[in-house]
Amino acid sequence: MAEVKNSGPARGGGWTRFVTARPRLSLLVALVITALAVLAGGGVADRMGSGGWEDPDAESTYATQVLEREFPASQPNLLLLLDAGTAGVDDAAVAAEARRLAERLDAEPGVSGVGSYWGTKSPALRSEDGRQAVIAARIEGEEKAAGEILRQIAPEYRGTHGPVEVSVGGPLAVRHEMQTVIQEDLLRAELIALPVTLVLLVMVFGSAVAALLPLGIGIVAILGTNAVLRGITEFTDVSVFAQNLTTALGLGLAIDYALFVVRRFREELAAGADPQTAIGTTLRTAGRTVLFSALTVAVSLAAMLVFPQYFLRSFAYAGIAVVLLAAAAALILLPAALLLLGERVNALDLRRLFRRGRKPATEGAGAEGAGAGWARTAALVMRRAPVFVVATTAGLVLLGLPFLDVKFGTADDRQLPATAESRVVQDELREGFPGSPGSGLTVLAEGRATPEQYAEYRERIEVLDGIDRVDGPVTSGAGAQTHAYFTVVPEGEAVGSTAQSVVGELRAQEAPFDTSVTGAAAVLVDSKDAIADRLPWAAAIIVVVTLLLVFLLTGSVLIPLQAVVLNALSLTAMFGAVVWVFQDGHLSGLLGFTPTGDIETTLPVLMFCVAFGLSMDYGVFLLSRIKEEYDATGDHEHAVRFGLRRTGGLITAAAVILAVVMVAIGTSRVTNTKMLGLGVALAVLMDAMVVRSLLVPSVMKLTGRLTWWAPGPLRRFHDRFGISEGGAEPAPVEAPGQARLPDGAAAESAEASEGVAEDARDKESVGG
């Protein structure tokens, strides 16, 4: 696909002939493949997990696995909350029914480690008011198998049993309910996003036929990605949250790419080209930009593969698949459809219903006629470039300041709506039970040890700062290999700063046996360490590949650096809003979530990779058009004005549509999904409407023609391997210190050369 410099236009003709040789056959094959994808991807959500935040190689993960094997009762994932009302949990009839339920649960296949308040009389399993108590158990097996057992047995225990009312909770129930809620919310988001997107596309294109094309490409990308994810679940864990990204990027990027291709095709038709010629020009220009953009987005998402948490890796799987499928559909299926439609791509202009015989309006988001307004915006911004650079940068930095106070935590049941059963159970445990069962730390002891050694170790850790009490040891095994565990209850919140400090102190203690620490705070500490350890690698991958790809597009040394810095700057508002809203709780009532005072550790990484990739998507659209015009005219300022004129409406329309899709995802009742959807929507709008419209042209004005400079070796490298949207020879750029031509001279000639053809495009073509 990529055209080598000075290779001539013939290189693009081969791809054009390939994708348009048998357009009907291409569409038929695509229809068959899509139908197969529907079958292959069916039920993919049922094979996904709802966890994946922990590092599988961490100490806490190892300790949890050993405890699950040696002491199932120490790691309960199923809790039955029994409410005895005014009778109290010590009433004889209540106790008898509770014991019967515990015995019945212990007899269930796959259930082990059943314990209860009535069997142990542990005060941690009884509410402080004496009205509620807990039966705890462990459902064995990996996440999917355990979830299936829970689904089968939960209805048998939920509800009224004699004198008690039973509710089902625990970590496994939380995950199961979260998975169900996410699937329901995703369906609702699709029902919201699809019709609204169609309406916006009709407003952009005017033609209902043209509007349906991007939507069709998006649906193909989503269905194809579901099939890919279904295959991946055969080999590794995939988070159910990844389906939200599939829908968002599948619709958003497919629409972006289709907008760009369809707009260029209609522009060529308006200029007098026949459909075959228009397709060839479109693929040589917009097609290359779409391919290049897809690569940059895929690289940003692929960076999440370096992290060990399968939650993050799942988004890489889904993101890479949906980006590449969206690009493939836009570059293979869409040209075939456009060739068959020809001039009929402009059919069914629904805007005529509102024009009542007036001259066709070309104003509006994405319309070519709006280009004059974008050109005037670019001219104004460049005349006051220093002011816009300083004001815009200061504003974005100010919006990002709340992120300096970010606090990282773990996802828990409060991600769910307050009415969810498993959330209600956990709320009751937090508020009414001493020590909130399951919220402490567990120290696993492995190796031969005497009771005296265990007692000495317990005395040593009991006096550590921040510890409320230590229970245990509970021992098991015999001979050379003995296992035991201590339960340590830290002061304050289960994952608060005190609990995290206690984790470090426990791990620093010497003992006559091997120790490993697990628990919610330990999982958080290990997750933060894993992310911090791999974050530089992920950032390096994104930055290095972005610099290389943008250099291949532009041949400039400065533009890739500008792209990385400005893209990062465009994300400040998103990160500031995440802390201000979701951590601090502002607007929580309006948005319908429970603030926990922290942000789940992996979310900022995910949001950065997604939003950075989408920002590069819009950056490539703008830079490719600026580069094309600069190569043709050699006039820097004119090229910037021209690029913004040609893509300003397109980028704005694409950003608004993608924001609509992300906001639809943000209507989810799960807080993390809400945060992802609304946060990325804000980042996309800020990038398109502030960074691309104001900051990019003002910065390029300040850097002038030196924007395009590169040292000799790099210039020769670009001449040989660079990617170009147009076929014109690049204008020479002087090295620093050399004289340069005035920017205005070439612009006058360029504007004159556009002449009547430009006017015709402004009046007739839509979707720019």
Description:
With 768 residues, the chain is of the alpha+beta class. The chain contains 26 helices and eleven strands. It has helices at residues 10-20, 23-41, 59-70, 92-106, 117-120, 143-157, 171-205, 208-232, 242-270, 275-302, 310-341, 352-355, 371-383, 385-400, 421-432, 451-462, 497-508, 520-554, 558-570, 572-583, 588-591, 603-633, 636-665, 671-703, 712-721, 743-764, and strands spanning 78-83, 111-116, 132-139, 159-161, 164-169, 408-409, 441-446, 467-478, 481-490, 514-519, 599-600. A five-stranded antiparallel β-sheet has the order 2-3-1-5-4, with helices on both faces. Strands 8-9-7-10 form a four-stranded antiparallel β-sheet, sandwiched between helices. The protein is elongated.
List the helices and strands and how they pair.
Layout: H1 10-20, H2 23-41, H3 59-70, E1 78-83, H4 92-106, E2 111-116, H5 117-120, E3 132-139, H6 143-157, E4 159-161, E5 164-169, H7 171-205, H8 208-232, H9 242-270, H10 275-302, H11 310-341, H12 352-355, H13 371-383, H14 385-400, E6 408-409, H15 421-432, E7 441-446, H16 451-462, E8 467-478, E9 481-490, H17 497-508, E10 514-519, H18 520-554, H19 558-570, H20 572-583, H21 588-591, E11 599-600, H22 603-633, H23 636-665, H24 671-703, H25 712-721, H26 743-764
Parallel strand pairs: 6-11
Antiparallel strand pairs: 1-3, 1-5, 2-3, 4-5, 7-9, 7-10, 8-9
